[in-house]
Write a structure and sequence with these properties.
Helix content: under 10%
Order of helices and strands: HEEEEEEEEEEE
Shape: globular
Strand content: 35-45%
Radius of gyration: 15 Å
CATH architecture: Sandwich
Number of domains: 1
CATH superfamily: Galactose-binding domain-like
Amino acid sequence: MVSALLRRVPLRLPATGFGFRGSGISYQTASAAPLAGFRGDDLVTIRSIADEPDFHHTDGSARSPGDSLSVSLDEGDWVAYEVNLAAPTRLTVRVGLAESAAVAIDVDDEELAVGDNVVVATTARVVRAGRHAVRVTSRSLRAVFDWLEVTPIS
């Protein structure tokens, strides 16, 4: 739990866990339809399977699959996730695409992979310890994804 809060690698984040630093830093979109009641000030399209997702899980009950949220990006749109490394390492980044799409994945503006259905990318060199930005960019008319996972390579 603490590692997730501090965004320490290894971690898995929901697609909606992109940064809170605003347009041009945490996301860039040409047009968006924010989800009312959830990150509504961020100009990123967040989709829910349910008409009205239930955010009230205070009794410990499991979330319904209908409560899941996805990020939907038009071509050229991107979202960025902050991650922290305790020690230098190479990284593997996985993106949970909800449907077939072309995406680009980069770490600190260094493109790791681009292409159709790219869901796994690995840094070519060791990434220094500290804070980093992992960005997912749509290269399709639309790319929808549910999660992002960043793990060190042992």
